[in-house]
Amino acid sequence: MSRIKVDFDLCESNALCEAMAPEVFELDDDDYLQVKAEETTPENEGDVKRAVAACPRAAISLED
To answer: Would the pTM count as exceeding 0.85?
Structure first.
C-alpha cells in the first residue's frame, strides 16, 4: 500500500483523477477535490496510479 498525497496548491480540480479512481477522488459541490482514502488498496492501486500519471499539474503523488 502507498499513501496518497495531493498538493492542493497545484490541484486545478479538473476531475481526471475522479474519472479514473472515483472510489478515491471526488469533487465536492464547490469543485474542490476530496480524497476519500488515505492509502491505496490492492483493488484500487492501478486506478490510483493511472490518476497520478494523468494529473496535468502533477498534484497527486504516492509515497511508500
So the answer is: yes
Write out the chain's pLDDT in tens, 64 residues.
999 999 999 999 999 999 999 999 999 999 999 999 999 999 999 999 999 999 999 999 999 9
Residue with cell 486545478: 12
| Residue environment code for 30-44, b if the CB has 16+ CB neighbours within 10 A, otherwise e | eeebeeeeeebeeeb
How far is C-alpha 8 from the chain's CA centre? 11
CB-based contacts of 13, cutoff 8 Å, min separation 6: 27, 31, 32, 33
Q: What is the DSSP letter of 44?
A: T
The C-alpha cell at 17 is 483523477
